[in-house]
Amino acid sequence: MPKHSVTSIYVTRPELPPLDEFIPYLEKMWDSRILTNCGPFHQQLEAALCQYLAVPYISLFANATIALLAAFKALHIEGEVITTPYSFVATSHALLWNGLTPVFTDVDPVTLNLDPDKIEAAITEKTSAILAVHCYGHPCDVEKIQKIADKYKLKVIYDAAHAFGVVGDHGSVLNEGDLSVLSFHATKVFNTFEGGAIISADPAMKNLIDDLKNFGFEDEVSVISTGINGKMSEMNAALGLLQLKYVDQAIVKRGQIDARYREKLSSIKGVRCLDRNGQQRSNYSYFPVLIDAHFPLSRDALYLKLKSFNIHPRRYFYPLISEFEMYSKLASADKAGLPIAHHASEMVLCLPIYPDLSLSDVDNIVDIIADVT
Hints:
Layout: E1 9-10, H1 19-32, H2 40-53, E2 57-61, H3 64-74, E3 80-83, H4 90-97, E4 101-104, E5 127-133, H5 142-152, E6 155-159, E7 167-168, E8 171-172, E9 179-183, E10 196-200, H6 203-212, E11 217-219, E12 222-223, H7 234-244, H8 247-265, E13 271-273, E14 287-291, H9 299-308, E15 311-312, H10 325-328, H11 339-347, E16 348-351, H12 359-370
Parallel strand pairs: 1-15, 3-4, 3-5, 5-6, 6-9
Antiparallel strand pairs: 2-10, 7-8, 9-10, 11-12, 13-14, 14-16
Organism: Undibacterium rivi
GO molecular function: transaminase activity
Keywords: Aminotransferase, Pyridoxal phosphate, Transferase
């Protein structure tokens, strides 16, 4: 037996409510025979999320990728969009699906978010928008980004997949920019198995987005836009209503795990935890650490060592989006122009964090890391 014996632990796991509490939702749905098409649970969840997240309008989607696709369509984005290479590939895939050209710029070395100081140099006459990501739920420098957008008359879309419930210096980060897109994937802080949403600021934009997610129908006989089928089902919405009752409890547990990691890792040379800059309220969606040259093993060697103990961290985000075949030939994908992003991609390791991860398992994970120092 290995010195540190643990059961299989993955970087994140879905938080599921008690099954017996879900049955009444299923019964209501079965009795109503309304399974989709923005039924009562869909409408209730939109209202509940607006209140919980302190946002004016929200449109639910089947997943966040479709929500991103609709967001670009709703804002009539064309040409080039400045974005980060340090994200999940869906961020840039949504641009290509809309016939848009991603223009990658480097990230900030502290937050790993899009570096506002690198944006202006990338703006051309074809630039129409900035697509930034609140990476790991850490807020972008929204003031600087908005100032640049205003100067050049650009739209700002935030991929807020990790930022459910995150509050920055000016309130909910979801209210920043023109639109923000959330993910409710099974592994997120708040999940509906699969799901997503767009946050908008006015009723006209919400109406447009709602038309786009329903094939472009304005009414039974009028199609006014080239829409898509992006609606969240009643099953997913019902789960979301139930999940919302437990999300604060889940975030508290995540916070305890986050604090334990920081305490135990603080004495290990070569392991740096990311600061939670600019957050008045965090959701502890991920726990990334950077493994630098002062640590005895490389990031990849540590990754394999943890896996040998049935602990499965993730190298979020490696490789960079700019390294994938469909992006690598872009001029902005040149490694020389993205040194911080590449360096972070080679050092980052997301350690397991989810509400039912025990603190003793956290201690075991850290002990395994410490044993190589």
